[in-house]
Design goal:
Structural class: alpha/beta
Largest sheet: 9 strands, mixed
Distance between the termini: 90 Å
CATH class of the largest domain: Alpha Beta
Number of strands: 22
CATH topology of the largest domain: Rossmann fold
CATH architecture of the largest domain: 3-Layer(aba) Sandwich
Strand content: 5-15%
Shape: elongated
Strand order of the largest sheet: 10-9-8-11-12-13-18-22-21
Length: about 650
Amino acid sequence: MSQNLKERLLSLRNSDMFSHVVSLSYLPRWVVLCADVIISIVACVISYFVTSRLRGNVFNETFLSINWCFFIIIISQIIFFWIFHTYSGVLRYSSYVDAAKLLLAVAADVVLLAVVNLFASLFYQVYLFSYVGLLIYGVVAFLLLFLLRLTVKIVYDAFSHSSGHITPVMIYGTQSAAVGIAKMLRTDPSSKYKLVGFIEDNRNATERLIMGAKVYLLDEETMRDVISKKAKAVIVSPLKMESINPNKDLDLFFNYNLPILTSPPMNVWQSDMPFSKQLKSIQIEDLLERPQIEISTENIAKQLRSKVVLITGAAGSIGNEIVRQVINYAPSLIVLLDQAESPMHDLRLQLEDKYPKQSFSVFLGDVRNKERMEYLMNLYRPDVIYHAAAYKHVPLMENNPVESIQVNVQGTKIMADLAVKYKVERFVMVSTDKAVNPTNVMGASKRIAEVYVQSLYKKIVANKSGSTKFITTRFGNVLGSNGSVIPHFKKQIESGGPVTVTHPEIIRYFMTIPEACMLVLEAGAMGKGGEIFIFDMGEPVKIVDLAKKMIRLAGYRLEEDIKIVYSGLRPGEKLYEELLNKKETTIHTHHPKIMIAKVQEYDYDKVSGDIDELIYFASQCKDYLVVSQMKKIVPEFQSNNSPYEILDIKKT
């Protein structure tokens, strides 16, 4: 019998009726006020009967009737409800603040009536109320009002939790940021999460309670027996994110398929706590980010303030971010150059909307078109050029070496020559780690572009024929850039998999787009001319580990829900990238993340002739002649997994 009753109660709790109640937003304020008034009347009646039993009389009925006494108490109580806004909160989200408001409202009413009673006794020698009765009324009224809110909160939490509306969560961290998130979970009406505990690495911290919630030690045993059973998600506080290595220290949560949420840094909060809408699922970019890089904004500002800045490839991932960062240094004009019409149109709309005071000029054009670039340079006379226009996808360039040369080499040569002609102060070229010991056409084309601008600078300095400072920056893969591995994996996961990885041992260096562009600006400002700057990329990441984390972040089980398959290395691809070849060494700079590569220097006259011949072969669409000439200019270029390996065999 008891089992049947239990089942019926459970089915009632999970019924649509309670789901409907849970889905209600909140009761109108007048309904809450009416409920509070009714409770106040009940408290009056209770105090009357209790005091009658204790004292034999409550009110001096020869002066005021009982009804008039009740009326005075309730009217004055309503006034204090209004003063303290006790009815304005949402009952199911009642907190200590609401309890304090109730206590103040009831206490103020009791004090006021006691003062009135005192004056009546002094001037009229009568007592309107019993002091004991007022005290009993105050205690009973507060308890009943608080009990109403507590009951609604408990009932709502129980049914909303069972019907899937509220997710029990634990907060990883116990510092001020974690407490701020906990306050939000307790008070924000729009929150969909319920706090069930805190998690901390420090064993001493687990011996206390925070806001009534227990602190649990983060270890395998507690995770298995307690955390994974009580919580359905974990919120990592922003201060905790700064003190851990997200790429490794959150693995325990992933292993138990617990979704991980984060909030913005505390300086973004508008008070001592965030909004629930600011909580978001952690992204793979959050796991791979390193501590914030410090740069010398003063040096960059000196280079860019009130200057005309030209950014090639402005619609691409890197160019786009460079534009947004350059704006911070108040240039007089930013010229955006790209040949991609739709992305340029979108970029212009975004910039006009977000930066209405900044002057922009959108220029459609191709860096391969010398006449068009000549017109551009003559029209705007830029002071600084950030050259980010390039073809970057290894397999595509391996299949189209002619295009790689025309954009990455010829386009760079045209822009560099025009920079000298129009007396540009600084020309900052964005290169890649794939230019080091290249095994593919794309990397080799970028190395040839490096060679050209470096030898050109050496030439103009020797001949005193120009003042342009040419600076090259090298870095690895950029998180979230167009066509990169992370957006590709996301699409595969969204479509149900499988996720394709080329090789189980392939590794890559990663930077975030803002981080990379920040270092480009810093290197461009510190460069004296002719340098190739390389960036500290941190530890390399296994691509298969990246894929595994992304699958778990999406809430899927590895190999059960989504599988990983290996497709084999693509043409020109190698297992690992390098920032230096064996003959190169580095020179440290004042910035710990930026170093100068000591590379082989080329004679401009010799290399310029070889590059002109390379460009001619490209204009004739001679793929094998193009690649052969590239190997002549860059002897360390050894093709890998490519049809052009035959050219290496012939060389030997």
